[in-house]
Design a protein that fits this description.
Layout lengths: L2 E5 L10 H10 L4 E4 L8 H7 L5 E12 L2 E8 L6 H12 L1 H14 L6 H8 L6 H10 L6 H4 L20 H10 L3 E4 L13 H9 L4 E5 L5 H14 L2 E4 L19 H10 L6 E2 L8
Parallel strand pairs: 1-2, 2-3, 5-6, 6-7
Antiparallel strand pairs: 3-4, 3-8, 4-5
């Protein structure tokens, strides 16, 4: 089985619609794909309706969190999307995205970048506007060569010159809320130092003690030594280890299924979940 547990669609900051994403996942030879848009489950219904036979969808979201001033992302799988407390927190985060993005556009203009809010809004479309949309605008303007180049201290990295904070969950609260909604939590790309400060291993140990289920090890932002270190930490803490593409369509160079999760780990995630269950493909078309 080929299993990719971290992807994004136009419901947040990917470039594939949810329907396109599942069709592309099937075409890439995946057996299981998780749709984990930022703080949103809005793309799930479309993905399910288009799900090709032979592909299973894991519903989820990537929750925006902050601990001691450091931003981190928590992947939440197979939770009940209608659980009211978790739904309310996701809504608070989403509601803060537009004013936050507008604030970053303002800072960029102060730095002499001729960026306009209308440009960012056009790129975001119906998705939840975020830094990748602003990064794409910077690419259009020739300020940076790639989306990754925009996530530096000069521009949009955590604490960077144009960075603006947003409402984010405490990760301990995120774990509690996801568990109360029957879901499973995995700390996304914990060693992605190029994005900004990362939380120390002592914090990961505390999250594990609070009920964190797993940690994403195989990821494009982790080099070999980082993967080895995180895998060893996971072994010490009894955490599940996953691998995922963090696919964003054309916004990043990573391909669907470039990094994958062991089937036994996937099986354990599904065994722990009680809020929702993986959705087997009902024969949606591979064609648009």
């Amino acid at each position: 089985m080929r299993i990719d547990l971290h992807t994004h669609s136009t419901a947040s900051d990917g470039t594939d619609t949810p329907a396109e994403l599942v069709r592309n996942a099937a075409a890439a030879g995946l057996d299981v794909v998780a749709l984990t848009d930022h703080d949103s489950t809005r793309g799930h219904a479309e993905a399910i309706a288009a799900l090709p036979a032979g592909l299973t969808l894991v519903t989820g979201a990537e929750l925006s969190c902050r601990l001691d001033g450091i931003g981190l992302h928590m992947l939440a799988y197979l939770f009940d999307p209608d659980e009211p407390e978790l739904a309310r927190e996701r809504e608070l985060v989403r509601d803060d995205r537009v004013p936050r993005a507008q604030g970053m556009v303002g800072k960029l203009r102060e730095l002499g970048v001729p960026i306009e809010w209308d440009q960012v809004a056009r790129i975001a479309g119906d998705g939840s506007v975020g830094r990748p949309h602003i990064a794409s605008a910077l690419m259009e303007l020739g300020v940076v060569e790639s989306v990754s180049d925009a996530f530096t201290p000069d521009w949009l990295a955590n604490g960077g010159r144009a960075y603006v904070e947003k409402h984010e969950l405490d990760p301990f609260d995120a774990i509690r809320l996801v568990k109360a909604a029957g879901g499973v939590t995995v700390f996304a790309h914990p060693g992605a130092a190029e994005r900004g400060d990362i939380v120390p291993e002592s914090a990961i140990a505390a999250l594990a003690a609070a009920g964190l289920d797993g940690i994403e090890v195989d990821h494009m932002d982790h080099d070999g030594p980082t993967r080895a270190r995180i895998r060893g930490l996971a072994d010490d803490l009894g955490l599940l280890t996953t691998g995922s593409s963090d696919y964003h369509g054309s916004r990043k160079t990573v391909r669907l299924g470039e990094y994958t999760t062991d089937p036994e780990i996937y099986g354990e995630i599904t065994r722990r979940a009680t809020g929702a269950f993986p959705v087997p493909g009902a024969g949606g078309s591979l064609l648009p």
